[in-house]
TrEMBL record:
Recorded superkingdom: Bacteria
Similarity comment: family membership: Belongs to the ABC transporter superfamily.
InterPro entries for the chain: AAA+_ATPase, ABC_transporter-like_ATP-bd, ABC_transporter-like_CS, CBS_dom, P-loop_NTPase
UniProt domain ABC transporter: residue ranges: 7-243
Residue stretches making up the CBS domain: 269-328
Statement: the UniProt record of this protein carries the keyword DNA repair: no
A GO MF term: ABC-type quaternary ammonium compound transporting activity
SMART domains to which the protein is assigned, alphabetical: AAA
Enzyme class at the top of the EC tree: translocase
Keyword Transport assigned: yes
Record PANTHER family: OSMOPROTECTANT IMPORT ATP-BINDING PROTEIN OSMV
Keywords, comma-separated and alphabetical: ATP-binding, CBS domain, Nucleotide-binding, Transport
Protein name listed in UniProt: ABC-type quaternary amine transporter
Amino acid sequence: MAERTVIELDTVRKAYPDGTVAVEGLSLAVREHEVLALVGPSGCGKSTTLRMVNRLVEPTSGRILLDGEDVTRADPVQLRRRIGYVIQNVGLFPHRTVESNIATVPGLLGWDRRRTRARVAELLDLVGLPAATYAKRYPNELSGGERQRIGVARALATDPPVLLMDEPFGAVDPEFRRHLQTEFQRIQRETGTTVILVTHDIDEAARLGDRIAVLSRGGHLEQVASPLAVLAHPASERVRDFIGDGSASRMLALARVQAGDLEGADRIVQPAPAPVRLGARLTDAFEAVAALPGSAMGRVPVVGESGDVVGSLTADGILGALRRAADAAASDEGIQDAVVADAAP
């Protein structure tokens, strides 16, 4: 059964009066419940593309469909109330409490006080900030990470079908950014919201995106595919240049240990070292093998869901798993989505 398309860009173009073309003839579909990461170098039109979806930037030509409706024909104010929007600097109203900030769009839509308070409490719980502690605080009483989470809660207030995120984690330090990314993954899994995420960071895109769309200068679509497919099989030199070095290490963080990667459990040297679990990321398996004492002969036990040992894994097995993941990415639907912008200048 085909996955439903929530957002469709159909030959969208954005040109400015001075002749600058930010986006040229972009066609792209965003599927229900997915996180689509838009990446590319500065000037590739990724933020412009995002802002055309909610008409903060008006497209010059083409169509943008939201659930089949052409947004260029919709009332822009009503449209933005249907779409969540999170930006790097959050944009909370400094004179309003956390509760009041989250309640902004419900108030505009005429929700009653009881319904609004219940939704605020629900969302604060969702983002891990208890209402009893945070509802009456002001933005200047929050940390940067807390403000970012309140921004996400506000964007989700009316349960929009789509959430647009423009470099949402760029303003926090690298260590806490990883924590926010983990929190975002949890929230997105729980809500099932369709997300377009703009980032300049290929590692963030690979970690958070179900698919990655790589744009080149002028908003030309170079490739749209799964993170593994983009890393293992870049569709053009522009994609390869943007990814840079380190594709193999990034793939280790995406691919997982499968039963076919294992050797027999009878080859494990006793006493057995700490195991890894079937389905673990190859990064975890690699770290486990690298930490083995010499007596373990480079072999780590692998356990299944029940905790029973189902096999063993070596460095050669991890390399084979990486090759297997790359081969699978070459044949998945992501590669079939690949686009090489031959007409790009």
